[in-house]
Design a protein that fits this description.
2 copies of one chain form a homodimer. Chain A is built from 6 helices and 13 strands. By secondary structure, the first copy, chain A, is α/β, with parallel strands linked by helices. Chain A has a single domain, classed as Stationary-phase Survival Protein Sure Homolog, Chain: A. In chain A, a hairpin with a 3-residue loop joins β3 and β4. In chain A, α1 packs across α4 and α2 packs parallel to α3. Chain A is globular, with a radius of gyration of 19 Å.
Chain lengths: 259, 259
């Protein structure tokens, strides 16, 4: 495909903040494809899911203002960033929204807590082709070199083929260099959950407080069509994600309840 | 069915905070059914979706400690409340989680931003029968009298029939009194979205700031199987909701992309 298109407008956001290494990698990956506008949180916003800010006003700081790369920082959540971008900052609806590259996995049920994927879902609701990218390493200095190449390749495929209405893509990269990565695998979301173990401490005046911690439990580690299996086996996982949460088969069941 | 069961443990949370009229209505509704433990945010947490608190520690305040009604307040999100309840506060996994009654609608795509439904989804991931209740009036003094009666009736049906694994229910009440309500309707999530219009203001030192505002746009106002239609026509809507966001039909499509 023809790569750089001057008229292609790409919105980039994340949940680790505009200064994170991951979003810089995503800018590097997307720059050959079009004009970039970054609208990202001023501070890290991990775990913010699809949250919006209603209790305090939002402020926008202009960080960079080049012809092909503009960067804005917002004191809000990833979803706030998408809403402000679409409604205030961009001259028109962007041709693509990419979010990430997140420092840490958003596979399986982690998608529900993910600000990265909250932003991608918000894009898809607004009928923008949207993809969230995450690297399963939580390291601030994680190696994004393979992710830079593969993100661009995935975006090129998405622009060529189109993403269905109200669907976005959840892409996770394994912790592996380019030569170790076995390929790209289309997956379903793994069934699993976080087993929480709170870290209970006592402050200097004797009052208890709790830090959220825990570990991920996979309900189906052997299922080869899941994103967790793909990542464990050094594949890049892509899960197509929908904003319609209705369980259609349960509708039939509930209609038998005698209300 | 037999109503009060001393051994039945019911966890109640919400996103408007433990002092909201809506959660008091839900306690009133559930008290005839079992032992109640309320674990709810100290302050309103509207729009917090499935967010979790990772940047500051959580603190728990004991508000009430009666045999059949305990109330705890947490300086976190609704999902934090559920996690702390399950892992720190309750003697065992509860038999039921109910969230709400929210002041304001969580129908259609509003579910994605909803802390009320974030808590219900968190319950379902932890295999607890979970139901989120919302009243479409945003009024702090909304009339919950019909909702008190109908919430109890819906919960009794759910306890009797069981809710499938990893599914929770999104119940919305119309703004109508008991005699005006036409019945309970099992629905799918309406396709629609929020059209944002930011309220742009200037502070005393001349800097711009933005308040998030906007209005809901329904993509399919005529569709009688949707929750928006049911509520507009004075039905109580119930949408069965799943935590698996995979779009299975898109998997087939993506497998044709040439990676």
């Amino acid at each position: 495909m023809k790569n750089f298109e001057k008229e292609r407008l790409i919105l980039i956001t994340n949940d680790d903040g505009y200064q994170a290494k991951g979003i810089k990698a995503l800018v590097e990956s997307m720059q050959p494809l079009g004009k970039i506008v970054v609208v990202a949180p001023t501070e890290p916003q991990s775990g913010m899911s699809h949250a919006i800010t209603v209790k305090h006003p939002l402020r926008i700081s202009k960080i960079k203002n080049e012809e092909d790369l503009k960067i804005f920082a917002v004191n809000g959540t990833p979803v706030d960033c998408v809403k402000l971008a679409i409604n205030q900052l961009l001259p028109r609806k962007p041709d693509l929204l990419v979010s990430g590259i997140n420092h840490g996995s958003n596979s399986s049920t982690s998608i529900l807590y993910s600000g990265t994927m909250g932003a991608a879902l918000e894009g898809s609701i607004n009928l923008i082709p949207s993809i969230g990218f995450s690297h399963i390493s939580y390291d601030h200095e994680a190696d994004f070199s393979a992710a830079v190449i593969l993100s661009r390749s995935i975006v090129e495929k998405a622009l060529k083929n189109g993403i269905p209405k109200n669907i976005c893509l959840n892409v996770n990269f394994p912790n592996a260099n380019h030569s170790e990565i076995k390929g790209i695998k289309i997956c379903r979301q793994t069934m699993g959950y976080w087993r929480e173990e709170f870290d209970k401490r006592t402050d200097p005046i004797g009052k208890e407080y709790f830090w959220l911690t825990g570990y991920y439990h996979n309900d189906e580690p052997e299922a080869q069509d899941t994103d967790e299996w793909a990542l464990k086996n050094n594949f890049v996982s892509i899960v197509p994600v929908q904003s319609d949460l209705t369980s259609y088969k349960t509708i039939k069941l509930l209609n038998k309840w005698d209300f």
